[in-house]
Amino acid sequence: MTNAPDDSRAHPAERLAEAALELCLERGLGALSARSLADHSGFAPSAMTYHFGGRARLVREVQSRTLAALEAWRAGQSDALSAPQPAWLSTSAWATARIEHLLASRRTHLALQWELEAEGELGDDVLRKAAADEIADMHRFWVEGARRTGAEPAAAEAWANLAEGLASALTPEPEPHRRLSWVFDAAVRLDARLRGREVGPPVAPGLDAGSRLAQAPEAEGARKILDAALRVVAEKGVDRLTQRDVATAAGVSLAATTYFFRTKSELLHAAFNELHRRVRAQVLEDFAQGEEGLSPPGIVDADSPIAWSVRAMEALHRAAARDPGLQLLARDLLSTRGATSLPILHGHGAASADALDAFIWSTSMSAVLRRLWVLPAGDRAEALRAAGRQQLRVIFGVGA
């Protein structure tokens, strides 16, 4: 049992809320219950209801404290930027340092905020509005920081999109050196693109990502099990997935599930590689048929298969932020990011784009998509297309 902060002068509700935040940062929002909080804090199981009237109000308090921590981080970084800086400070250097500092100091807060966003999508309008305000505040911080380090308005938007996308994509990664290997080169490349400079020899896709993602499982039974696994993840989250639940959802025996996938880890790896493969195949098919690949049809429709796939992928990233067993899977999927975007960028006129450009594009547009969920459903698709055209114009100097 871990005790709550031992300041006996604090009101019990304050101590309980702080203990709830600690529990959620350590184990995730899904771990918060009356019993787990009692075990963690030393309070009675009835304390949650007595002080907060139930879990819903306590979750809102946890969100308030999470957002306060992120706001405190932004305030500290803004104050630091107001202090004397090297005359040669570039937006690239500033963004790289700030992204890493955010992940080093607030990584679990970012993961928790992501979980709170998902909770809000289930129907809590208070959580949803606060999450939308936080997304807007963080975007404003990155735009203002880029402007203060010399970026023009359109370029500042591009920097903000990349910074937000990288912070989300790298939330599952606990190792600073691994995070920086993704951030540094992406920032240097974006800086070169925005300035119209030569970018050097093209970067080829790693690990033959496109070919690997093109391979579907051959056995029908395996495909049914993977379908069921992804449905369970989308509905319950990665941490609540069991092979027995998957077998039930697939309509097969537990023995059949363990025949194809001996462990939960094997099942998750196969399921998310299959999910990524399907999204890639659908986007490329739509693009080949003349759809505007900068905005895959249905990605902003909450009930569409492709949007459902994105939510399942987000569930993996949320879980990997705290589960070391999922971090290798998260790294593997990160290594394929941009594999779908590269042929689309070429098709839209960015002929010189390479694998690093595609990674930047995919990562940046994921941040755009996250912000667009606050818009009315009927406005999202056109807003996404407009953002894609703007990004293409600003970064690559071509029209969409």
Please supply descriptive tags for the structure shown above.
400 residues; mainly alpha; Arc Repressor Mutant, subunit A; Tetracycline Repressor, domain 2; 3 domains; 18 helices; globular; disordered N terminus
SSE layout and pairing:
Layout: H1 12-27, H2 34-41, H3 47-52, H4 55-82, H5 91-121, H6 125-148, H7 153-169, H8 176-195, H9 209-213, H10 220-236, H11 243-250, H12 254-260, H13 264-288, H14 305-320, H15 324-335, H16 341-347, H17 355-372, H18 377-396
Short account of what is shown:
With 400 residues, the protein is mainly α. It has helices at 12-27, 34-41, 47-52, 55-82, 91-121, 125-148, 153-169, 176-195, 209-213, 220-236, 243-250, 254-260, 264-288, 305-320, 324-335, 341-347, 355-372, 377-396. 71% of the residues lie in helices and 0% in strands.
Describe this structure as you would to a colleague.
With 400 residues, the chain is an all-alpha fold. It folds into three domains: 53 residues, Arc Repressor Mutant, subunit A (Orthogonal Bundle); 127 residues; 169 residues, Tetracycline Repressor, domain 2, CATH 1.10.357. It is built from 18 helices and no strands. The longest helix is centred in the first third of the chain and has 31 residues. It starts with 11 loop residues before the first helix and ends with a helix. The N terminus is likely disordered.
